[in-house]
Automatic annotation (TrEMBL):
Its cofactor is Mg(2+). Coiled coil: none annotated. It comes from Phreatobacter cathodiphilus. This is Hypoxanthine phosphoribosyltransferase. Its EC number is 2.4.2.8. SUPFAM superfamilies: PRTase-like. The gene is hpt. Belongs to the purine/pyrimidine phosphoribosyltransferase family. Keywords: Cytoplasm, Glycosyltransferase, Magnesium, Metal-binding, Nucleotide-binding, Purine salvage, Transferase. Pathway: Purine metabolism; IMP biosynthesis via salvage pathway; IMP from hypoxanthine: step 1/1. It comes from the Bacteria. GO terms for cellular component: cytosol.
Amino acid sequence: MNRDNIRVLFSAEAIAERNRALVQEIAATKPERLLVVAVLKGSFVFAADLIRAMDAAGMAPEVEFMSLSSYLEGTVSTGQVRVLHDVESPVEGRDVLLVDDILESGRTLTYAKDLLMARGARSVRICVLLEKPGKRAVHLVADHVGFTCPDVFVVGYGMDVAHAWRQLPFVGVIGD
Ligand code: 5GP
Ligand code: MG
Ligand code: MG
């Protein structure tokens, strides 16, 4: 696979501008003791940019990470989720912002939100870079959405195909 075969869908500049707007949306919710929980691995670039945009907006979030894996039967998701890495600090009483790359079926984010709420978070809001409409398996509405994504497989800006292309500064589509 050649980098030249990857078409830019959302440019680095468009993403940076959208991130600043997302931070304004998030700031308007007036979060207290804000804890950003980034869902690994796909959201690590987005979360890193988001927290620096938060700093520029005068916010001071703490940051934690979760790694979640869907149980597969062959290549089909069973809908069950396993926690591979958990947040390390207590979430009780805190306003949590769950950050992920793409909202598709909604299963992993629903699981993570329910888990953090059960642990006594004051609120859990969801921020995703991309949302693919019409793919939801469970009812879940993201509170903050970067872009609506067409039903294509995207890579870059933290997202991979077979572990490749996370380093691209833009969101792109392979070979079309
Ligand atoms: P779901 O919402 O189905 O629980 O999980 C969506 C997850 O599937 C995303 O966080 C991402 O890891 C993966 N995913 C879905 N669509 C794409 C895509 O177009 N490209 C990449 N790289 N990952 C995707
Ligand atoms: Mg993911
Ligand atoms: Mg992946």
